[in-house]
Each structure stands twice: as C-alpha cells, then as structure tokens.
Specification:
- Residues 1-21 are annotated as: Disordered.
- This is PepSY domain-containing protein.
- Pfam families: PepSY.
- It comes from Aliiroseovarius zhejiangensis.
- By secondary structure, the protein is α+β, with helices and mostly antiparallel strands.
- 23% of the residues lie in helices and 32% in strands.
- The chain has helices at residues 24-35, 42-52; strands at 56-65, 68-76, 82-88, 94-99.
- The chain has a four-stranded antiparallel beta sheet.
Length: 100
C-alpha cells in the first residue's frame, strides 16, 4: 500500500445494500470524461482494482486532481477489511491504496 491519502473520507462506507454506488454528479463527470477520451470505462477500472485487491467494490467516486481524472474505489475484502484505492482514470494505473 502506498502512503496516506490525506483524508479519512475515502474510508467512509455508505449503506448500499451490497451494491456498488456512485453519486449522480460523479457518474455524469465520469461519462463525460469517457466520451472525451480522458477516462477508461468504470467496469475496466473496477476489474483493475479487484485484480490487485480482491473483494466487493461498494463505493466509487470520480474526481479530477491537478487535471488528472481519477476514480476512487472502496473495496471490502473477504475478511471484512476496507481498502480505499485511487486509480488514474486515463491510464488505469493504481496511484495509491490504503487500508481503512
């Protein structure tokens, strides 16, 4: 796992009934970035995260940090541990991950 993310907000779980959630606004931002060729589709990004951190994705966020579009994914592992993963939306590279 790479260094601290600087915020504990990436570790807060929402109650989603076991389904992955994303806010409507962030979904629209991600879709616009995908259409413009600035981001990979969410399904591809989730598969990248799950290959490295197996478990159930429960929350996805999308933001731009210094012009770099990023997905933020919370994964609950089989042991119940929560892992917050930040992935470059453009390249699919895992930028950081931390146990919560």
């Amino acid at each position: 796992m790479s260094g601290p993310s600087g915020s504990r907000d990436d570790c807060r779980l929402s109650r989603s009934g076991g389904q992955m959630t994303i806010s409507r606004q962030e979904y629209r931002q991600a879709q616009a970035a995908i259409r413009q060729g600035q981001a990979r589709p969410l399904g591809e990004i989730v598969r990248i995260a799950q290959r490295r951190y197996p478990g159930q994705p429960v929350r996805v966020g999308f933001s731009t940090n210094r012009g770099e579009p990023q997905y933020h994914i919370q994964i609950v592992t089989g042991s119940g541990e929560v892992i917050a993963v930040t992935i470059s939306a453009r390249s699919g590279t895992i930028l950081k991950a931390r146990r919560c």
